[in-house]
Amino acid sequence: DGGITQSPKYLFRKEGQNVTLSCEQNLNHDAMYWYRQDPGQGLRLIYYSQIVNDFQKGDIAEGYSVSREKKESFPLTVTSAQKNPTAFYLCASSWDTFSGNTIYFGEGSWLTVV
Amino acid sequence: EDKVVQSPLSLVVHEGDTVTLNCSYEVTNFRSLLWYKQEKKAPTFLFMLTSSGIEKKSGRLSSILDKKELFSILNITATQTGDSAVYLCAVDARRAQKLVFGQGTRLTINP
Question: Collapsing DSSP states into helix, strand and coil, what is residue B83?
């Protein structure tokens, strides 16, 4: 089945450690995105990529890094520089930036820093 | 700066009630407004609105856009416990090349 796969679904991290969240899509989409969601807040854009080997900072990129070496993959690294990393992270993809209702979301990854 | 504001942030009603969720926006080069429902994980698409005054309906849900006053409403009639979710409003601004989301409205339907 076509879709977006995020892993892991749940992750615990000690303070000071980097962690990488995986996002893979087999929809042949050019554009991919990472959003963060905190309680009481909507989705905030961390990074997005319009095409392979290119990515742009979103609204809250500090403390995060990404890569886009392959069309189907857009991993997100939460570095130790991110002050409040505990959150729900959503990966998404679309044909381009932007096709409105044709954005597809993954199931999300819960990151907890202990 | 592009901005999307939803209200209320939280709403608790009884099954069978009708609810109205609000979304106002300030964006440059508006292209469309979208509503999503998020139950536990991935948001699922509900509506995309591009033109003022044209109501979109899907079962008990309906939505309309007012481009002059820069807002949209999402109505749910005869609510059911399965409607309990966070409802997200997002605006597609042509210049921004990304969706701008509101904070979401957490809707709880009590039996």
Answer: helix
Q: What is the DSSP letter of A73?
A: B
Contact state of A90 with B90 under an 8 Å Cβ cutoff: no
Res B40: pLDDT: 79
Contact indicator for B109, B15 with CB cutoff of 8 Å: yes
Q: In chain A, at which residue ranges do the beta strands (DSSP E only) sit?
A: 4-7, 10-13, 19-25, 31-37, 43-51, 54-57, 64-66, 76-78, 87-94, 104-105, 109-113
**Residue B30: closest C-alpha in chain A:** A100
Contact B24, B70 (CB under 8 A): yes
Query: SS3 breakdown of chain B: % helix, strand, coil, rounded to 5?
Result: 5, 60, 35
B75 and B17 Cβ atoms separated by less than 8 Å: no
Q: Which residue of A has its CA nearest to B5?
A: A42
Percent of the residues in chain A that have a pLDDT greater than 90, as a whole number: 69
Going from the C-alpha of B27 to that of each of A8, B98, B100, the distances in angstroms are 35, 12, 9
